[in-house]
Amino acid sequence: QVQLQESGPGLVKPSETLSLTCAVSGYSISSGYYWGWIRQPPGKGLEWIGSIYHSGSTYYNPSLKSRVTISVDTSKNQFSLKLSSVTAADTAVYYCAGLEGATTFDYWGQGTLVTVSS
Amino acid sequence: DIQMTQSPSSLSASVGDRVTITCQASQDISNYLNWYQQKPGKAPKLLIYDASNLETGVPSRFSGSGSGTDFTFTISSLQPEDIATYYCQQYDNLHYTFGQGTKLEIK
User: Fold this and answer.
1) Which residues, numbered 21 to 40 in chain B, qualify as contacts with chain A under a Cβ-Cβ cut-off of 8 Å?
2) Which phi and psi (to 5°) does residue B79 adopt?
3) Is the pLDDT of residue A32 over 90?
4) Mutate which of B96, B102, B103 to disrupt the A interface (most A C-beta within 10 Å)?
C-alpha cells in the first residue's frame, strides 16, 4: 500500500523559500509513477502546483512556474517542493500525491499547513 | 491552460435525493475527467476516473458521465456520509486543473 507523508516548516516568512518533502513508503519511486504537489488555501479549492516523473522530468503550473522547483531523491525514496518568494497568498495546506498512470491523483498525503507570516 | 467550470458551488439536499453536479471544460478534454470527494480536514479521495469509471471500493450510487467539454457527476440516493466537497479534475498533457468545488450539505 502506497503511503505518503509531507514534512517541513509550518511557518515561512514573506519573501523566503517554502521547502517541503514527501516521503513515500510501500512503493519504490524509481519503479515509476508520477509524483505531484497540490495546495489548498484555507476555505478554498485545490490547485495543482507541479509534478515529477521518477526520471526527473518536471511539469509545472504555468501560474507558479517561475517560483517552483520539484525534485526527486530516489535514494531516500522521497520528492521535494521548493516555492520561492512566498507571500501571504501562498498560505495553504500542501498535499503530496502519487499518480499511477499520470491522469489521476491516486495516493495522497495527509497534508501539511504552511503559513506565510512574519 | 484549460479551465474547469463546476456548478453549483453549493448544494443542499435530503437523504435519498438524487444529486447532480456538472463540470464544463474550456476545450475538448475527451474523457480525461476525474471526480474527487473531500471531507473536512482530509485529503481528497478519487471516486470516478476517465469520466465514468468507478474507482475500486466506491459505492455504486456514485456515477459519472460525459465527454468532450461537458461532464456530470451523480449520487443516485444521497446518504449522510456523502456530506463533503466534490471536485472535478481534468488532465491535459501532464497538466492538471481542478474545478472550484461543490459543497454538499444535508437539508
Assistant:
1) 32, 34, 36, 38
2) -115, 155
3) no
4) B96
Cell numbers describing residue A92: 495553504
Name the nearest CA neighbour of B21 among B81, B68, B80, B89: B89
Between strands A47-53 and A58-60, the pairing is: antiparallel
Report residue B76 as a C-alpha cell: 443516485
Each residue of B29-85: pLDDT tens digit? 999 999 999 999 999 999 999 999 999 999 999 999 999 999 999 999 999 999 999
Cα A103 from chain centre: 17
Can the peptide bond before residue A42 be classed as cis, meaning omega within 30 degrees of 0?
Answer: no
Q: What is the pLDDT of residues A65-84, one digit of tens each?
A: 999 999 999 999 999 999 99
| Inter-residue contact B29 to B92 (CB < 8 Å) | yes
Three-state DSSP at A88 gives helix
Bridge partners, residue A40, by sequence: A93
* Run of H or E including A11: strand A11-12
Concatenated DSSP letters for B30-65? TT-EEEEEE-TTS--EEEEETTTEEPTT--TTEEEE
